[in-house]
Write a structure and sequence with these properties.
With 458 residues, the protein is mostly helical. It has helices at residues 3-12, 18-26, 30-40, 43-55, 59-71, 75-87, 91-98, 108-120, 124-131, 138-147, 154-173, 184-194, 198-211, 217-229, 233-240, 245-258, 262-275, 283-292, 296-303, 315-324, 328-336, 340-345, 347-360, 364-371, 381-391, 395-404, 410-419, 423-428, 433-451.
Length: 458
């Protein structure tokens, strides 16, 4: 076990991934997680095993699982150990284990994590004090708001946010676009709303949006969401039909629909598609609206003008809409209608989606036959074939297929085995961390070589 391998696991979700770990946890395989942590140095297994043991009251075993990782210098293990101690009621010991020193108090990340631990320990005032020096950071200010929700601290939090929101307003008035925290205005409105001061939240944030005193579009959408939640239809209509329509019309349309005025919502969206300089942003809200009304053919026609424009990404959602409506043949027809250029540029995507549609509708043999016509090196093809075999009950064939393909992801085979009650076999068949990390380094080196020195691949 070494820091380099641990950092690689955390950075790339390498080794036994969080997805696999979640599957093991759901199946009660705590002991297998403990074994993988101890024998293979799998961090995600150690983390999950410690949490499960802690919940079961096995504090010392949980700490024992984490100890080798902490001894290797992995800070995440120290923090997980503190969580275990806290779960066991050993509050002082938990806090002392990770309490930041003077240098640590200068770190946003450390202060954030320590504040979270303090809050769980019932020391909310201390948590706020730890965060306060860092409140000019957007994510720390957001963390403060989240941490204090429902804790009867709204007035205190507003006192900390208000001067920052005012400085953000002034920054925009002075033609400055860069200011931290740029989310102070929307967070101020959020806390006012949860404190029951909705009118004040609407008045303050509305005035900022109308005057253009906002630093990012998230503040505008936060205002639209505030209006939608509180059924402020007139203010929302004014926002959604003005210069901010591109970002806010969809919120108004959903509010109209919820108010029993779906016809008005549809009309507003159709007008925007017909008149806007960039109308494509309004197509999906209209497709969703029509889909909820069962008007599938009309929904398809709304999206049709942009189906060959892959960047807009409406086609995948319309395919799903058709399949859910029990119309897989129409979904297949849409795939077949794509231009030659689309087929050439997105052959892998077309192939995998045709397989998906066929399997979703129970046409397994047709799907398998079609998969056999695709280039064998197509990304994800082996996993797709294995999925078809699994769906038809041909488990051993699926397993053999994945084992035979050295290019297939090891996790695909592991997931298949875990789903069928063969968790120990799945873990035993995974390559070691050293092998996986070495393979990752080779891929990165190859990608770098292909990209050249002036074009980093990542």
């Amino acid at each position: 076990m070494n820091i380099e391998d641990l950092e690689w696991q955390a950075r790339t979700l390498g080794g036994i991934s969080p997805r696999l770990v979640t599957m093991l946890v759901e199946r009660g395989e705590t002991e297998l997680l403990v074994e993988a942590a101890k024998e293979r140095g799998e961090w995600f297994c150690a983390q999950a095993a410690a949490r499960e043991l802690s919940r079961a009251g096995e504090t010392e075993r949980a700490l024992d699982v984490l100890a080798p990782f902490a001894e290797a210098g992995w800070d995440r293990a120290r923090w997980e150990s503190a969580e275990v101690l806290l779960e066991a009621g050993r509050v002082r010991q938990a806090l002392d284990a990770v309490r930041p020193d003077e240098t640590g108090l200068a770190s946003e990340r450390l202060c954030h994590d320590f504040a979270q631990l303090l809050s769980k320990a019932g020391r909310l005032d201390d948590a706020i004090s730890v965060l306060t020096p860092h409140l000019d950071s957007e994510w720390i200010l957001s963390a403060l708001v989240e941490l204090t929700e429902g804790q009867d601290r709204d007035e205190q939090v507003l006192g900390l946010i208000a001067p920052r929101a005012e400085r953000a307003r002034r920054a925009r008035g002075e033609k400055r676009w860069v200011f931290h925290p740029g989310n102070a205005q929307e967070l101020q409105a959020q806390v006012l709303e949860r404190a029951g001061r909705v009118d004040e939240a609407v008045r303050i944030l509305g005035a900022d949006v109308e005057a253009g005193r906002v630093l990012n579009q998230n503040t505008v959408t936060a205002y639209a969401e505030l209006l939608q939640r509180n059924r402020r239809m007139e203010e929302l209509r004014a926002l959604a039909t003005g210069v901010r329509a591109g970002k806010t019309l969809a919120y108004y349309a959903r509010a109209l629909e919820a108010d029993g005025r779906a016809g008005e919502a549809e009309a507003a969206l159709r007008r925007a598609i017909a008149a806007a300089e960039y109308p494509d942003r309004f197509r999906w809200p209209l497709i969703e609206l029509l889909g909820r009304q069962g008007r599938i053919d009309e929904a398809v026609e709304v999206g049709r003008p942009v189906f060959d424009d892959f960047d807009i990404c409406l086609l995948p959602s319309v395919l799903e809409l058709l399949c859910k409506a029990g119309r897989p043949d129409d979904a297949l027809a849409l795939l077949d209608e794509r231009s030659d250029e689309f087929f050439e540029e997105h052959a892998s995507w077309i192939g995998s989606n045709r397989i998906w549609v066929l399997v979703e509708t129970g046409r397994y043999e047709e799907a398998l036959a079609y998969a056999g016509t695709l280039p064998p090196d197509m990304y994800g093809l082996t996993a797709g074939k294995a999925w078809i075999l699994e769906e038809t009950g041909r488990l051993e064939e699926a397993i053999a297929l994945l084992r035979a393909d050295t290019g297939a992801r090891g996790s695909a085979l592991a997931e298949l085995l875990i789903r069928h009650g063969r968790a120990a076999e799945a873990v035993a068949g995974m390559p070691s961390l050293a092998e996986l990390h070495a393979a990752s380094r080779r891929r990165e080196a190859a990608a770098q070589a292909d990209a050249g020195p002036d074009n980093p691949p990542f």
